[in-house]
Backbone:
């Protein structure tokens, strides 16, 4: 397989994007940094806004969700919004507030399971910590991001001599007792060691630390693999690959008439029911403010007219066909890696696409000149979902679900195709530009 330089460079940029974003808070920092370089100004929800044609801006809620937009030349009531939604979070392990536990001269860190990771993939990996720490500075509480780049933690597997059935029955980990991560020897780690490490890394005192939200991440950087290096492997491809494609589509779009919006939500992997999640009011609040803070005088019905003319794409990873497990896939809807983005359909509305959305998808493939595929889940397996149905029902906006196919979704080390990443970006750019 021949990989063009354009595809290779896009995949390299994606790998760098994921390398910089081990947690949702870091992902938002990475997004904000790139947006600012392209002229997007930060806004604060607590301030009054005055918006005008062509203005580019973004707003952050909760530190881990971000919505960026560019104001079009025509009123949304006449042309609607074009919106892309993706999510910044990935399933994994989070450190408990009082997680240090000493047993038999070893110190472990207790964890909570966030979402639905493939827990067995965390075994024997070089793990470390990243996240957000709240500290008190004089009379103010401030947030600081933290990331330990060296491996701090490990989840060693039990030897096969002590677990003879592991290859027959699979690795099964007790969620409470067998997931704590080894940190070090208790004789080397005094009381309060963990807070001391955080304080030293942030150059503050232990007394200044008020809380921390820390996730476990794999320190191995992303890379290429395959006979022609046609695949990539990394953590958090679900769903940072879609965030990356959505960001670049926004930065490259050519639609000057419609107001275009990209929403990057936290908490998709745990149901989105939070004040910064897709099932909250973040996006609806933003769309209302885009109406009422512009220079145009509005009729009371204009917001509803705008939503009725709008269209939303939920961008999230799709299940790539795995030749070792053909029985897991619907036989007439195999989605293959490196054969194009997939439109996701489910009659039970686990995905939001309907017949009109499928027609739009095919139109966008023609516009972007990229290949595409159709994914349908097998009847006898439970179907996952996305932010698509939540956003569609909350906003009343027609929505379609699509994404690049991938292997090992929710593993600590996922894989995807190099070609599909650029094609997804081109598809999303066509969506935003097709006003």
Residues:
């Amino acid at each position: 397989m021949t990989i063009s330089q354009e595809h290779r460079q896009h995949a390299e940029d994606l790998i760098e994007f994921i390398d910089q974003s081990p947690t949702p808070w870091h992902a938002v920092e990475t997004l904000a940094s790139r947006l600012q370089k392209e002229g997007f100004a930060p806004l604060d929800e607590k301030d009054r806004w005055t918006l005008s044609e062509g203005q580019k801006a973004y707003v952050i809620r909760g530190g881990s969700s971000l919505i960026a937009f560019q104001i079009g030349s025509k009123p949304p009531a006449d042309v609607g919004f074009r919106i892309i939604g993706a999510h910044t979070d990935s399933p994994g392990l989070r450190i408990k507030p009082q997680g240090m536990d000493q047993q038999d001269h070893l110190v472990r860190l207790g964890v909570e399971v966030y979402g639905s990771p493939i827990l067995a993939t965390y075994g024997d990996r070089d793990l470390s910590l990243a996240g957000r720490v709240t500290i008190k500075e004089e009379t103010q509480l401030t947030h600081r991001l933290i990331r330990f780049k060296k491996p701090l933690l490990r989840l060693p597997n039990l030897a096969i001599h002590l677990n003879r059935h592991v290859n027959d029955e699979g690795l099964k980990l007790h969620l409470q007792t067998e997931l704590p991560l080894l940190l070090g020897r208790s004789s080397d780690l005094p009381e309060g060691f963990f807070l001391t490490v955080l304080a030293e890394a942030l150059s503050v005192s232990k007394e200044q630390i008020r809380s921390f939200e820390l996730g476990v991440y794999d320190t191995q950087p992303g890379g290429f693999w395959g006979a022609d290096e046609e695949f990539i492997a990394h953590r958090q491809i679900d769903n940072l690959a879609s965030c990356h494609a959505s960001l670049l589509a926004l930065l490259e779009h050519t639609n000057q008439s419609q107001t275009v919006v990209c929403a990057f939500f936290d908490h998709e992997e745990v149901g989105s029911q939070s004040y910064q999640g897709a099932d909250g009011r973040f996006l609806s609040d933003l769309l209302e403010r885009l109406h009422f803070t512009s220079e145009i005088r509005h009729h009371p019905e204009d917001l509803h007219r705008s939503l009725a003319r709008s269209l939303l794409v939920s961008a999230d990873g799709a299940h790539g066909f795995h030749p070792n497990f053909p029985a897991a896939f619907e036989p007439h809807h195999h989605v293959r890696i490196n054969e194009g983005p997939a439109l996701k359909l489910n009659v039970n509305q686990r995905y939001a696409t309907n017949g009109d959305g499928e027609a739009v998808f095919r139109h966008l493939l023609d516009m972007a000149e990229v290949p595409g595929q159709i994914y349908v889940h097998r009847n006898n397996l439970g179907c996952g979902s996305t932010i698509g149905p939540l956003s569609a029902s909350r906003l009343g906006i027609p929505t379609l679900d699509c994404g690049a196919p991938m292997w090992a979704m929710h593993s600590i080390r996922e894989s995807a195709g190099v070609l599909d990443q650029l094609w997804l970006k081109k598809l999303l750019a066509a969506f935003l530009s097709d006003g």
User: Anything to note?
Assistant: The two ends are 35 Å apart (CA to CA).
